[in-house]
Amino acid sequence: MAGPSTNTAQRLLRELKDYAKSPNEALLHLGPVDDEDLLRWEAVLKGVNGTPYEGGLWHLRIAIPPNYPLAPPTIHFTTRISHPNISFATGEICLTLLTTEHWSPVYTLSSTLTAIHQLLTDPQPDSPLNVDVAALLRDGDLPAWESVVRYYTGEERWQGGAPQGR
Amino acid sequence: MSTYESEHNTTDPAIDNNPRRRRPDMSTFFATLSEITPAPDHRPHAVPVPSDVSAAFYSLAEAFEVMRQQASAAADQAGDGTNGEELLSQMIESLLSQADTPPREVEGVSEEFCDMLERVPKASLNASQICPICNNPFLEDEYPLVVQLPCHPTHLFDLECVRPWLRLRGTCPLDRTDFAKQLRDKAEERKKLTEQDDEEEWDSMYG
C-alpha cells in the first residue's frame, strides 16, 4: 500500500498531539499501533454509564486510507460486542458517517470514535448488522436485550494487551 | 583473428539479440482518454461520462493483457518465470474492477470555482482561528491563503486543504452545502432560460 502523503501524515500527527492535549472521555486509548506505520491506529472504547454497556471496554482497529482526511477511516471492533448496528462476527460498524458519501474531512479520529460511543447509547434497530439483538429491541423486550448486552459486555471485556486474532 | 566487435567490446548492431516485441495498440485508449479529459478551450462545461471512464479502463486493461501474454511467452523461452507478469495481472485486475464501478456522477466542483472563492486577507484573521481540516491556526503560516465558502461567513479554510475536497465532493465540509449541485442546477436553469428565450423570439417573429 502507498504511504501517506505529507498532508495526511501532518494531519495524523496533529491529531495525535491534540488527543494528548485534550483526551477523549469516551476513550481509554487512541494512537498508532506502532511508530512505523501512521496509517494503522487502535483505540479502546469505554462503556457508557447508565446503559447495559456500563463498565465495558472494547478494542478497535482503525485503518486509515492514504488520502485521509478526504476519505473516511475504516473502523472495526476487535473485541466482540452485542449491538444492533455492529456485527458480532466481524466487528463491522454500521454508521453513516463512516461511509464515503457522508464523511467530511472536518471529522477527526477522536470525533469519529465519539460518534461510535454515541451509537452505544442510541442503537438503530432498523438497520441491523446483528439481527438477533436488534429483534429483541424492536420487539420491545428490553429486559432480554439488557441482559444479553450486559452478559457480553462483561464476558468479552477487553483485558489489555494485543487483540485476539481479527 | 579477433573481430571488430570483440576488440571494441561491443556487439554488431546488425544482429538483433533482443527482437522488439509487438507493442499493444494504444490508440483506442488514448482516444477514449481524450474523450474524458476536460478540454477547457473548446468544451468548457464537458464532464467525463461514466461509460467513457469505463471504456478507458477496459482498453488499458486490454493493452496490459497483450503485454502479459507476450511477457509470459518470452519468459517461457528464456526459462525464468517472473518477468513482471504478476504485477501486470494485478494491474489488469484492478483496472477491470474500477471499470465495473465507474463514478456515478461528477460530484466535485471545477478548478475555476476554487479559484474564484472569496479570499480572506491576513489582517482580518486572528490567532485563535484554525482550519477545520488540518486543525492548524491560519496564522501559523506566514502567508496564509485562506478562503471563505459561500455558505457561511465563518466557514473558513486553507485553500490548500479544502480544494482537494471540493474537487472530489463539492460540498462544504462543515454544513454539506452542495456547491457542485448548485452549479449543475444553475447551468440547467440557464439552459432552460435560453431555450425559452429562443421560443419567445420565434413567437414574436411569427406571432
UniProtKB/TrEMBL annotation, chain A:
Catalytic center residues: 94 (glycyl thioester intermediate)
Coiled-coil stretches: none
GO molecular function: ATP binding; transferase activity
InterPro entries, per the entry: Ub_conjugating_enzyme, UBC, UBQ-conjugating_AS, UBQ-conjugating_enzyme/RWD
Top-rank lineage group of the source organism: Eukaryota
tRNA processing keyword on record: no
PANTHER family to which the protein is assigned, alphabetical: UBIQUITIN-CONJUGATING ENZYME E2
Family membership noted in the UniProt record: Belongs to the ubiquitin-conjugating enzyme family.
Protein's recorded name: Ubiquitin-conjugating enzyme E2 2
Source organism phylogeny: Eukaryota, Fungi, Dikarya, Ascomycota, Pezizomycotina
From TrEMBL, chain B:
Keyword Zinc: yes
Skewed-composition ranges (Basic and acidic residues): 1-10, 185-195
Keyword entries, A-Z: Metal-binding, Zinc, Zinc-finger
Domain RING-type, chain residue ranges per copy: 131-176
One of the GO BP terms on file: protein ubiquitination
Keyword presence, Metal-binding: yes
Residue ranges, compositional bias (Acidic residues): 196-207
Gene Ontology cellular component annotations, sorted alphabetically: cytoplasm
Disordered as annotated region, ranges: 1-24, 185-207
Domain of life: Eukaryota
InterPro entries linked to this entry: Znf_RING, Znf_RING/FYVE/PHD
PANTHER family reported for this sequence: E3 UBIQUITIN-PROTEIN LIGASE PRAJA, RING-TYPE DOMAIN-CONTAINING PROTEIN
This protein's name: RING-type domain-containing protein
Species assigned in the record: Penicillium daleae
Species lineage: Eukaryota, Fungi, Dikarya, Ascomycota, Pezizomycotina
